[in-house]
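Figure 6 in text form: structure in, sequence out.
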């Protein structure tokens, strides 16, 4: 059935949509799309079909930035075969064919025989240029927009000046000032750049198309005497070892005998108001030359302070602050100091007592020497519990037959 052309307002409508791309599959913006009616003879094969009314398209559209288009098509029949063509950069696409029905929509993608790319060049001594993809830091790179239409590179200067150019470089800057960069050839300063960088150009002229990103490698230049070379030092990679816990214990012991802790203990022992402390100090008060005995009291108290706090305590109680300190200083991940400490200690004489490896080695070498006193067997008993007899320190005023532990003496506890 045919529709009267005088009744165009009542003629059926359809839609044609799709993409217009260049040879590199980049979208072409502002390309003109035209839809023509195609007639075919029933007696002839489809390949002999011809376009009719080519000067009067039955639908038109302009592509978007993403190369998309949508054209309303006026039909004479409820179902027609149409031809779709795209025009850009002074050339046209191959024919696209589709069937369009009334109130229906068809999709046709078109490819325009245009390819845009960026080439990089190095200036030679004789003012000639050479195509390159690798440059040295600090060089000025020549960037050129290459337009290829139907397999031929456009090299006519006047025709190249007919287009507009919008350059984009990933890093660095162009030598040309803003407002003077719409040129087919620009210069890129690579000062301070290293690695792989990209450059693109959008070419416009009625239609506009973008090049694919062109990768350019900038290599570091050779060092010169005037260069400042930044140097950084980092801690070498460290694997956690079992003796990490030992250093925590040593650090704890060193803090325990710090002067601040020692001063606090001596102030409490020698200047405290406890009755037992007064009794201890009064024991030397009746003797002449009290300054001499006060010195001996300080000496004995200092020895007791060191007995209590010096040495490596056999313990498994490590605080979270100590664990955080090790992880921060050594640069290791999550570890268990308790497990490391348990693996580090050695059994002594096949019994339950555990000591540090150094003491276990000494005991092994001196296995024929008898140990004196149960507190010296290498057990976990603290040295501060060693008894001090009155005969051992007569100047402390300890009553005959009585003993006091070094811990009690240093802490100022009841004797």
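Output sequence:
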């Amino acid at each position: 059935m045919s529709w009267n052309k005088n009744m165009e307002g009542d003629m059926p409508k359809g839609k044609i949509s799709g993409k217009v791309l260049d040879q590199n599959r980049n979208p072409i913006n502002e390309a003109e799309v035209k839809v023509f009616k195609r007639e075919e003879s029933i007696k002839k094969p489809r390949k002999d079909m011809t376009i009719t009314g080519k000067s009067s398209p039955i639908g038109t559209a302009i592509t978007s930035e993403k190369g998309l288009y949508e054209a309303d098509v006026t039909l004479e029949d409820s179902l027609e075969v149409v031809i779709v063509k795209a025009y850009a950069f002074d050339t046209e696409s191959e024919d696209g064919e589709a069937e369009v029905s009334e109130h229906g929509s068809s999709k046709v993608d078109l490819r325009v025989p245009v390819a845009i790319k960026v080439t990089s060049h190095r200036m030679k001594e004789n003012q000639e240029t050479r195509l390159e993809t690798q440059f040295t830091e600090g060089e000025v790179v020549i960037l050129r927009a290459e337009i290829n239409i139907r397999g031929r590179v456009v090299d006519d200067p006047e025709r190249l000046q007919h287009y507009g150019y919008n350059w984009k470089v990933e890093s660095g800057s162009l030598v040309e000032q803003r407002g003077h960069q719409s040129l087919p050839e620009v210069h890129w300063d690579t000062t301070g750049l290293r690695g792989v960088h990209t450059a693109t150009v959008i070419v416009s002229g009625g239609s506009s198309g973008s090049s694919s990103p062109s990768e350019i490698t900038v290599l570091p230049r050779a060092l010169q005497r005037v260069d400042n070379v930044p140097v950084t030092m980092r801690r070498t990679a460290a694997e956690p070892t079992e003796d990490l816990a030992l250093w925590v214990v040593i650090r704890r012991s060193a803090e325990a005998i710090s002067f601040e802790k020692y001063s606090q203990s001596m102030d409490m022992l020698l200047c405290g108001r406890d009755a037992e402390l007064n009794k201890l100090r009064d024991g030397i008060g009746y003797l002449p030359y009290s300054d001499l005995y006060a010195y001996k009291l300080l000496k004995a108290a200092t020895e007791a302070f060191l007995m209590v706090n010096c040495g490596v305590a056999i313990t498994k109680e490590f605080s979270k602050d100590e664990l955080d300190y090790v992880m921060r200083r050594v640069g290791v991940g999550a570890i268990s100091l308790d497990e490391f400490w348990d693996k580090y200690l050695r059994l002594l004489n096949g019994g339950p007592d555990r000591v540090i490896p150094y003491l276990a080695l000494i005991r092994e070498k001196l296995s024929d020497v008898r140990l004196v006193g149960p507190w010296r067997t290498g057990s976990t008993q603290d040295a501060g519990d060693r008894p001090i007899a009155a005969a051992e320190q007569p100047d402390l005023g300890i009553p005959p037959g009585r003993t006091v532990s070094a811990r009690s003496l240093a802490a100022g506890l009841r004797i």
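Caption detail: The chain has a mean pLDDT of 77.
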